[in-house]
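TA notes, week 10

Several of you asked for a full example with nothing omitted. So below is the full record: structure tokens for the whole chain, then the designed sequence directly under it. When grading your own attempts, check the secondary structure regions first.
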């Protein structure tokens, strides 16, 4: 039989050659972001197709912006994106861990160990680590939670900014957690404003929107009532879309208008019937009906975005309706208070309901700083949610990886055959975090690792990591360098998954020509 047509114009590499190329690609990617790890990590200047620039040291941002074509490199990037989605942090760590796992695997392959044996050893290591993590984690009190969020922000913005962002994030998440232990992060609204200092940023209980009621004759504050959320408007045009009109005399138009007003009034009567005291519409509310709404004691808001309506729905346990006629017990919400307030001359509408929401008003001097503040909030809110939901933390500065590697080596001794070597290789791989943190701070990586391992053994403590201030091993609890366990868990799961997937590929079929191989700085592979 002739060669299958699918292989025409295809470059094929298989077996060890395919594996070597794939591992090279993965390592090259890890190498590219290695220098950004940790608080002393350097920034990368990214320039896109259109010449826009972005300075960042966030691993996943670098990777997602880079134009990477190699499919294996794409697999690594996707592991980093998953890390970002699940744990909000640890994106660089995941890629560095996977790169190191593959590098160590390659050394074993050169010694004649089959990739599937390595994959099995790696899988056992991962399972062992996920089980042993419970021996290392501890419960965080409020001070520790604050330190954890600060650690997440290390290297991003200046330190007083980090303090404020950490404090506000935890405060906001705590408010949301009052109504449900599983925190819905979308109940937190971030309003960022230029002008002012970060120190003036504040958290408000409830959902706050930059809106004003449609008439100042309406009540400024309303308490304990029902709210209707309309994904449409209260306008003449919406009433008349279904009508056909033949205008023959001037009077006809006028009587038609009157009819329209009557229909709008009926809508308002319907609101009254349903005991609604606050109305929010995505589209407009006709000026003609303003007074009638006011007379009926309804506080009304128009042009509320759908996004904000959805947040209101969560805050007040309500549902969106297409028209007032669709209101029913199922979709009418309840609020505790609905107030119009002014802050620094700007109008806001703030709604409190049983589905606790929180609003952060973040201030920063310039648009650039606002962008940075928003990115910091994104990370710190994600980590705060993990902390409030779970509250279990581990020591940073590489301590947790050294503590896990120590246990993993003891476990390896109980596993016979070649898998033992794979488990040892995995233990060596996760210690890479200490080496890279040291390297990026200008500290000798090998001595740093040896010192941390020795100090953990001497003091019989899992809390010793690398203190980047003096280059010496230090107690991470005392130094306040702490991380939620979720980051470590997901980094181990993600890195192992991608390393094993890459080890399992032994045949690569590339259509047309071979894709460009990323440059590899070291000669190792
Ligand atoms: P990632 O994208 O993986 O989160 P980061 O650049 O944020 O990468 O670096 C996180 C690492 O830096 C973690 O291992 C954390 O423990 C460590 N780290 C943060 N602050 C310090 C510090 N002051 N001293 C030592 N290690 C630190
Ligand atoms: Mg980080």
């Amino acid at each position: 039989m002739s060669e299958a047509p699918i292989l025409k114009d295809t470059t094929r590499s298989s077996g060890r050659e395919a594996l070597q190329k794939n591992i090279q690609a993965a390592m090259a990617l890890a190498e590219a972001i290695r220098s950004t790890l940790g608080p002393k990590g350097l920034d990368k200047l990214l320039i896109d197709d259109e010449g826009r620039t972005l300075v960042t040291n966030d691993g996943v941002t670098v990777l997602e912006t880079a134009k990477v074509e190699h499919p294996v490199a794409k697999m690594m990037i996707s592991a980093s994106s998953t890390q970002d989605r699940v744990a909000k942090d640890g994106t660089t760590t995941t890629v560095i861990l996977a790169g190191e796992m593959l590098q160590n695997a390659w050394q074993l392959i050169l010694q004649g160990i089959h990739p599937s044996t390595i994959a099995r050893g790696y899988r056992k290591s991962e399972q062992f680590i996920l089980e042993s993590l419970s021996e290392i984690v501890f419960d965080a009190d409020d001070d520790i939670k604050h330190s954890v969020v600060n650690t997440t922000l290390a290297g991003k913005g200046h330190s007083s900014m980090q303090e404020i962002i950490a404090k506000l994030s935890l405060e906001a998440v705590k408010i949301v957690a009052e109504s449900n232990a599983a925190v819905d992060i979308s109940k937190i609204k971030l309003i960022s404003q230029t002008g002012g200092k970060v120190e003036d940023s504040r958290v408000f209980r409830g959902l706050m929107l930059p809106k004003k009621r449609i008439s100042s004759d309406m009540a400024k504050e309303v308490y304990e009532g029902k709210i209707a959320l309309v994904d449409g408007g209260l306008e003449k045009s919406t009433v008349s879309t279904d009508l056909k009109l033949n205008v023959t005399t001037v009077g006809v138009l006028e009587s038609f208008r009157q009819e329209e007003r009557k229909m709008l009034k009926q809508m308002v009567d319907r609101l009254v019937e349903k005991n609604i005291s606050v109305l929010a519409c995505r589209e407009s509310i006709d000026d003609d009906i303003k007074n009638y709404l006011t007379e009926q004691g309804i506080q009304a808001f128009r042009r509320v975005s759908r996004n904000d309506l959805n947040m209101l729905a969560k805050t007040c346990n309500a549902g969106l309706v297409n028209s007032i006629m669709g209101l029913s017990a199922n979709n009418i919400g309840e609020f505790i208070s609905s107030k119009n307030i002014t802050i620094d001359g700007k109008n806001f509408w703030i709604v409190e309901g049983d589905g606790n929401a929180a609003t952060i008003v973040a201030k920063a001097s310039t648009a650039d700083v606002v962008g940075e503040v928003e990115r910091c909030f994104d990370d710190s809110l994600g980590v705060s949610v993990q902390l409030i939901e779970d509250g279990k933390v581990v020591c940073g500065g590489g301590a947790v990886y050294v503590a896990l590697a120590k246990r993993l080596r003891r476990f390896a001794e109980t596993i016979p055959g070649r898998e033992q070597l794979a488990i040892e290789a995995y233990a060596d791989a996760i210690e890479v975090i200490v080496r890279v943190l040291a390297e990026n701070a200008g500290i000798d990586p090998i001595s740093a690792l040896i010192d941390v391992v020795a100090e953990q053994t001497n003091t019989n403590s899992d809390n010793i990591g690398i203190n980047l201030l003096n280059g010496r091993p230090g107690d991470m609890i005392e130094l306040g360098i702490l991380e939620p366990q979720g980051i470590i868990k997901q980094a181990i799961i993600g890195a192992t998954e991608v390393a094993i997937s890459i080890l399992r590929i032994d045949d690569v079929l590339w259509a047309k020509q071979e894709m460009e191989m990323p440059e590899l700085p070291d000669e190792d592979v």
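Residues 396 and 482 are 5 Å apart (CA to CA). Use that as a sanity check on your answer.
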